[in-house]
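2024-03-11 09:14:02 INFO receiving multi-entity request
2024-03-11 09:14:02 INFO entity count = two
2024-03-11 09:14:03 INFO echoing inputs for audit
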Amino acid sequence: MGRKATDPGSGRFAYEGLDRLLHEKARLGILTSLLTHADGLGFNDLKALCALTDGNLSRHLQVLEEEGLLKVEKGYEGRKPKTHCRMTASGRERFLAYVTVLEQVIRDASAAGKERAGSKVRKAGEGLSPA
Amino acid sequence: MGRKATDPGSGRFAYEGLDRLLHEKARLGILTSLLTHADGLGFNDLKALCALTDGNLSRHLQVLEEEGLLKVEKGYEGRKPKTHCRMTASGRERFLAYVTVLEQVIRDASAAGKERAGSKVRKAGEGLSPA
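2024-03-11 09:21:47 INFO inference complete, emitting structure
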């Protein structure tokens, strides 16, 4: 309770690296799907994997393509039009950097969760050793 | 590439549990700060830890309190008004459930990232063994 705003912990939980472009539920699904499918995915497959509507998926794909995270190619499979999406190298890099920040959030939350579970008497900030 | 929308993987990357109320950068910071400080935090400490402005922090605190995730108490420290924030038990539960979904996102992304790093020749979906 006695912590002051001048503590070295200032900004400790600001998570500046949480890229706002990527920090959106549907976009996380799209990017993880594409990361998991190195050859890319067709529009319908992506739609199913992320449980999105046509309109929603189209809108997100457009934004993500404009930002260079993925490449959307429109072509044909026989006579049927087919849209294929693939992650770009820079998109993969940017997404993995974002995932690193997510990992930090989880580490912070897990540490606190475990500490509380371990002893309800202890108070946060009492300088518990990691062991 | 030959995956169909009827695959058992439908909705595999939908991350339905990614609670929209919590899936916001500033709110993640606020909730992780409070989870880490079992006795709660004063307004100014929270502001510093999350690197937020007064207005921004107030707005998020109000929403999170209305949703029952935290309790905001206004009192005095000597003659100075002091606002103290503390996570509720149900807030902690809801946040930890959200964190569990984040962990799934990271597992998915990490698995794909490692697979790609391991061999650029392999294709996703070829049924690689975990080893």
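2024-03-11 09:21:48 INFO post-check: The two ends of chain B are 24 Å apart (CA to CA).
2024-03-11 09:21:48 INFO post-check: The longest strand of chain B covers residues 70-77.
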